[in-house]
From TrEMBL:
UniProt domain Major facilitator superfamily (MFS) profile: residue ranges: 38-457
GO molecular-function term, one example from the UniProt record: sugar transmembrane transporter activity
Membrane topology qualifier: Multi-pass membrane protein
Cellular localization per UniProt: Membrane
InterPro entries: MFS_dom (IPR020846), MFS_ERD6/Tret1-like (IPR044775), MFS_sugar_transport-like (IPR005828), MFS_trans_sf (IPR036259), MFS_Trehalose_Transporter (IPR050549), Sugar/inositol_transpt (IPR003663), Sugar_transporter_CS (IPR005829)
PANTHER family, sorted: PTHR48021, SUGAR TRANSPORTER ERD6-LIKE 7
Entry's transmembrane regions: 34-56, 76-96, 103-122, 134-154, 161-180, 186-207, 271-294, 306-326, 333-355, 367-391, 403-423, 435-453
Pfam families, per the entry: Sugar_tr
Gene Ontology CC annotation, any one: membrane
Bias kind Basic and acidic residues: ranges: 1-13
Keyword DNA damage: no
Region (Disordered): 1-26
Stated name of the protein: Sugar/inositol transporter
Upper taxonomic lineage: Eukaryota, Viridiplantae, Streptophyta, Embryophyta, Tracheophyta
Amino acid sequence: MEKADNRMEKEIKAPLVSESNSPRNGNGVEDQTMVYFSTFVAVCGSYAFGSCAGYSSPIQSAITKDINLSIADYSLFGSILTFGAMIGAITSGRIADFIGRKGALRVASGFCVAGWLAIYFAQGTVPLDIGRLATGYGMGVFSYVVPVFIAEIAPKNLRGALTVANQLMITTGVSVSFIIGTLISWRALALAGIAPCVVLLLGLFFIPESPRWLAKTGNQKQFEAALQRLRGKDFDISEEAAEIQDYIETLEKLPKAKLLDLFQKRYIRSVIIGVGLMVFQQFGGINGICFYVSSIFESAGFPSDIGTIIYACIQVVITGLGAFIIDRAGRKPLLLASASGLVLGCLITGLSFYLKAYEIGLKAAPALAVTGILVYIGSFSIGMGSVPWVVMSEIFDINIKGAGGSLATLVNWFGAWAVSYTFNFLLSWSSYGTYILYAAINALAIVFVIMIVPETKGRTLEQIQSNLNSS
């Protein structure tokens, strides 16, 4: 009797499912290796983006001399990049929706490779401009597809940090181009731009497609297989898969969205947030300051080469810091801190040019200018440089993500062109007034973030979009 009682007591205390025999414990252990590898492959496109953006700055004198370019010729060569990017932005959403996120990455890589080869073999202005236009188109597609792909494959606790890796690799690509462009010829620098595209094209053979896109297109088996690869073979994906599938089925009942549908009441808040953040990101002055940072340092009496290297290093380091803390601090606090720093940086820089214009405290003017520019770029890198792309990839319903993302990206590239084109005109009007104007725009960005932008940290994409739509 005692042996029987003891045996019964042990059976009662034993777990219903044996841990040693069960392949999963709860939800199992999530293996994030494939998520990290897929992100690495995708951000090779971001690095290619940065290589395109940073190409024209260090090679201006060499390429102008070798090809006998006039100032007008080189101005066209530099600015046509943004026109290609605008075209890429317009078409990127449709391409990504039609042939998938991986397919869109292949298209962008192909255009960049073709563009770099055209520049490398160029003997005149026409192939140079065609090549620059092609690389710009690839940039425009990359600027939309990379953050969207990362957001759709990442678990919610990693989504912010992994999406910010997009901006980190862009700044790294720009900085590397700045540095090695002073060491090698402009043709060799063009060949170097092909390298990240080749890595991306090869890597795409080894990573899964976006599960959310597969679910949207009705590929149920591929959707589950892709999600399982991303979460690990022993992880229970049933809950996440069901949530995604339910959301997709709800969206499928809605009519297919067109561009004008973005302005329906259901989606208008998402559009205001996505487009508004892109407006403030660009019209706060970043591309004017970035494109002409060397001349700004020179006019302030500071060595331009040293200033540019410091500028590039700060940009990379602080963008990396932002990637590390975004899922801890949240999107909204980073945006507010960043915009506040941008206001301060503009005011300090504006003060330096005010002192120089009225010949007051001339010895302090260079130090103030350098301090202001470095505060500005550090503040931009921690938040306004990367977080708008993170938020843009999170807020649109998947059935309008193509149209919404294309609109936001187009606005971003239009702003980049407008600011870079008008910067010198504004400086000729008033050097210190230009920075006061940018400070005012960044102050409005603070108000916009406080009143309009939601916090998306720690939520699934479906939860974010459901909350936005209901509100």
